[in-house]
Amino acid sequence: METWLGLMSGTSMDGIDAVLVSFQDRSMTLVGTHSLSYPDDLRHRLLSASQNHASPDEIGELDTLTGHLFAQAANRVIADTGADIHSIRAIGSHGQTIRHQPSGKAPFSLQIGNPAVIAELTGLTTVADFRRRDMAAGGQGAPLVPAFHKEFFGSTSESRCILNLGGIANITWLPAIGEGDVTGFDTGPANALMDAWCLDQTGRPYDTDGHWAKEGNVDEALLSDMLSDAYFRKKGPKSTGKEKFNLDWVRTHLARHPDMRNADVQRTLLELTALSISQQLPDYGLKTIYVCGGGARNPELMKALAEAVAPRDLKITSELGLDPQWVEPTAFAWLARQTLEGKPGNLPEVTGASGQRILGAIYPA
User: Fold this and answer.
1) Any known ligand binding at 360?
2) Which of 129, 145, 194, 248 would bridge with 361, disulfide CB 3.0–4.6 Å?
3) Superfamily of domain covering 146-320
4) 345 among the known binding-site residues?
5) What digits encode the pLDDT tens for the residues 221-277?
6) 37 is an annotated ligand-binding site residue
7) Which of 294, 316, 295, 292 is nearest to 304 (CA)?
8) Is 14 known to sit in a ligand binding site?
9) What contacts 272, CB < 8 A, 6 or more positions away?
10) What's 3-140+325-363's CATH class?
11) Known binder of ligand: residue 138?
């Protein structure tokens, strides 16, 4: 059985998710999974680099260090499953995004996690650097996962929305097959602002199960101020990241709303995620939203989302056959497959690219 290995670390920068998967027509089988957390020091260095506080030497060192960790995650899932390395066709590695700037005179997206190191330490062909070809064709370079959503989560009878809750939230609108084009875009923050505020105020990298947010109350004036950001009204194609939605963004708004309790800020940031998503959902034909990504494990966020999107149903992608944690690494395993089979991996109607493109750079074993 031919298998593919997918590696993903998102904008939350908390670690690497690895999957070993086989694909059969429009279905898939997970063979094994593994999660590898970043050491605290490395995570702090990555977060600093993402805010432009890193020299070229620091970026180069982080590229190598994360490459070693991506290879470690890959080798661990191979060892855990006892897979024959000769049955693994290739690795698809998203890498770790450091900066994503899709607008301006010279758009770019920078992912580190040296794929040459991954290929060397695993002995497997590695496909990486997926975003830049789409951007070269005039696209946003993100989100890329909607092509995978379309392939495996589309339905002939039901229009669906796939909602990914990473550091940044993105949606994929999947009309019932034959009833319209797939669309998708980044809606704005998912966990990014909550994580940043939690780390700044408590020293904890995230608010476990939303317990701290549950202690607070929504400040309607602050929430309204935040929701007035022009990004939320912008139509797709669009993408964003921590370059925009970061702790400085929060502090800019808090300067106009002084003397707030820290827990109230956290609760308001949670509500911002829920409402900014719900206000950008398609307003026709949508009955069910399927959630994936780390935010699916936050019960307070899921509760707020369920209230915000009602009367539409909120479910998780497990009901479509894939656990929320493993959707994105599986998507990049599939994108590697697309690349090596000479097939496009982007959806121009999502990214805004001038056409379909074969994505990624190939690093032979």
Assistant:
1) no
2) 129
3) ATPase, nucleotide binding domain (3.30.420.40)
4) no
5) 999 999 999 999 999 999 999 999 999 999 999 999 999 999 999 999 999 999 999
6) no
7) 295
8) yes
9) 189, 193, 223, 226, 227
10) alpha beta
11) no
